[in-house]
Amino acid sequence: MKLLLINPNISESVSQLIAAEARRSAAPGTDIEVLTAPSGVAYIETRFEALLGAHATAELAAQHHEGADAVIVAAFGDPGLMALREVLPCPVTGLTEAALASACLLGQRFSIVAISQRIRAWYAETVHAYGLSSRLASIRGLDESLLDIGNVQGNQGERLVELAGRCVAEDGADVIVLAGAPLAGLARSLEGRIPVPMVDGVSSAVRHAETLVRMKAGLARAGSFSAPPAKAHQGLTPAVAALLAKAQAQRAPGAVSRLSR
Question: Looking at CB atoms within 10 Å, which of 64, 89, 121, 261 has the fewest?
Answer without folding.
Answer: 261
